[in-house]
Amino acid sequence: MKKILLSLLFLSILSSCSNEHYDALNHDDVKPEKVPSDYLVTSAITNYTARLHSTNVNNNIFRLVAQYWNETTYTQESNYDLETRAINDRFWNELNTRVLYDLEDAKKTIPDEIGPTDLDKKNQIAIVELLQIQAWQSLVDTFGDIPYTEALLGTELAAPKYDDAKTIYDDLIKRAIAATNDLDVTAKSFLSEDIIYRGDITKWKKFGASLQLKLALNLADVDPDIAHTTINNAIATGVFSSQADNFTLNYPGAIPYTNPLWVDLVQSGRTDFVAANTIVDYMNTLNDPRRAKYFRQNLGDGIYLGGEYGSATSYANHTQISNTLHQANYPGTLLDYTEVLFMLAEASARGINTSQSAESLYESAIRASFEFWGNTPVEADEYLAQTSVNYQTAEGTWKQKIGLQYYLALYNKGLDAWTVYRRLDAPQLNIAAATGLPIPNRYTYPVRERNLNKANNAQAATAIGGDTQATKLFWDKN
Prior knowledge:
Strand order of the largest sheet: 1-3
Shape: globular
Number of helices: 18
Number of strands: 4
Distance between the termini: 43 Å
Order of helices and strands: HHHEHHHHHEHEHHEHHHHHHH
Strand content: under 5%
């Protein structure tokens, strides 16, 4: 749904007209005075998904930060230059103005809408809450402390204070539990405008529980009590149990309703990216059959050569991105069954009762990844049988074993891969070739915030230990 709906002009009310006939003339059925909530929700979902899946370096460099891809010509982003293209500003602004604001407006609009029952509206508000929580977590996991309690007030408060990231997380967990509990499977959602689950409240509840799991695991090293309680609640509520539960936006494939990857990889006519040597080297060592799903075999059958991360890389002489990701209708998945299984494997390895062993969940997660990418069960069996993959014989601690396989499975989900790497310190990633810089621990605050919200921004920078890429987030304790 095009965001242009939000720019429609509101008609003014002629105060001198008291007659009902003349009053009716002041209302335009074509240009609504209020944008319906389902339009706002659809706009927020499509904008959020586009931001997380885009590979335009002005908008999203998470695939580069996670070292899945490398650049062919311009390597500033592979060397973690966030500010030349205002990448940090754009991510911050997009999630605030085109995701969180729209969802906040939807929450205010829903109670007054005609048609849905009170239970339907309760479901709709709960769904909006879960979508907001997802976006808030992305912002915190990228920047650390951010405006939260005073955010989304527009001109009423143009310079909001920053909230402590841990405090935000605690509140997001409470909100996620409450919103998930509010969902009533006997009522409806946004019906035809529910572009994720098509009105299936059972799946929205599973999404809410899986979101709780995701929030909780990030607290495991800093607040194990809350983490354990929340994980147990998520499992009891019911997390994703198959690929059918995935939080996925299906793109029709016709312009302008295309996966943003297609825009950047095909429509642009550019050849800016190849596979990075980081992921390719790991997959080559493990003889991983997903290579043929992730990448083209443009160098020959079974030959994969990644570009040195952070160094300008020849497009023709290195492994290119797979044809699958070049499809205009390739779905955009933000949270999936594979990720949930890896999270449960990690929880089990931490001693939390998940009803299955870490080994069993680890194997199930790898099988789910193979299924997601179209590999066969036989390929999964052969892969798991390798000494270097088998949970009992693979080298390293549980964090290193799970971290490596989790990282490989998160291909195409750069932000999540970056988060897993920061939290588990696994697998080992490369130093950027041109600058010698290590992986950033966070994005620096937007320049706009430093200029227009100077006092609050400076206070936040001090609170987190300095507004630098090296500053660790509160949950990054390893």
